[in-house]
Specification:
About 45% of the residues lie in helices and about 20% in strands. It is an alpha+beta fold.
Amino acid sequence: MLQVKNRIDDMAAEIAQKKMGAEFGRLGKDKSSTEARQKGVATLKSVLGNFEKQLQRVGDSADLRAHKATQSSEQEFSVKLEKGSQQLDFDVHVKQLATVHQVQFKNVAALATGSVKVAGRNNAIALDTSGLDLATAEGVKELARRINADSDLKEAVRADLRHVPGQATPYLLLTATTSGDGARFDLVSASGVSLVARPVAGPDAVVLAQGQDAIVKIGNQGAEESYSTNEIALFTGVTLSLKKAHTGTETARVSITPDMEGTAANMRALVQAYDAVRKQLRELMDPGTPGASVSPDGDEKGDVKPAGAFYADAGVRALLRDLERNFERVVSIDGKTFDPARFGVKRSADGSVTFDQKRFEAAYAGDKEMLAKWFGETADVMKRDTRADLDTQPAGMRLAVRIREWTDEITGVLKHRTDTDEIVTQRLATKEDQLKARFLALVARYTDELARAEQVQQQMKETRSFVDALFRGSRKSGE
């Protein structure tokens, strides 16, 4: 009986599969196509995002045309170049470094009901010492915690503990959070008397470091300039990091000049990011092997290459054409012809785009300004001049705007396609559930019909056996 039941179940499932095989095949093909599109969208989002980051790096945090700084001496300061730096020569004399104000308190108990007077503030800030025994390590530790948690103090002063050998109670170390004259502070008692400016013999507090401004002089004839920090934005895109004060009156010479190697590196990175986008777009639009298809169960055939997820997709094809047009086309700038191919953008026979260093160096030596004008000052779409036609704006802005039309998290093409594919996926899941339900119903139906047929067949066998038995009995009686 069990063998009969298993045979009926297998036959019913086979019949139902044959009847609904075409529908399941179409469903599998639709699911495979949707999954391929979803993977394609994720891939496209990644490569476009990487290219956008490269545009922003060159256009916002740095310049495509790089500069380099050389110094006659690197002991007193270092030079950092950022976006907007230009060719310059200047002398620097560092007279004084900026320092933070720092006070060490030995007799912390003297701070009970005291306050901190910060330079530039009219009112002193009272210290919360209530309930604390400042003669104990626990009390000093809690006071430091309260100072660091005080909203009025934590932007101006930081409290630390200094453990001294042989001292049971740690010293309280107060340090200004910023450097310069304006960051100085004083500690005063409840009566308003300074606890820092007391006689040297047995002081409650000692000034370990006096807050002061940095003082520098630009050029031999320049006036002294004061800065509250050792990081000085001296010119647009030029920052000095002071390290040591000069002795005497000597100066250090700084020369900022165009950097062909740095510019070439920027251009190479830009070309590589552009080629990665082109390569990925071409793969996504690959027509595949002629006749390639997906099997009814959704598996790809191993002997053929299937078409790309965006094969014959007009939108993706238009995106590729726009990127190529904006990155590789010849344009006129200030009456001169700019050809990206002359500046190292080389299209190879296989369709890839590479960077030709020698060709770039030859073109750059002839005109250092043209490359910067071609790319523009920024690739930030928020800084786009909406009054001007996009096609007349620099290549960096044209490329950034076109990419943002696809990558925008709210209105971008990829966001729209992702939302659409999610809806399609939900519909396919519903359809799959419906098909499975129909399949199970068919299996149940055919199982019931086959079981009845099996029962009828068994009854017929039993009837025939009965008739045969009667016939044999009649023959024996006649004999």
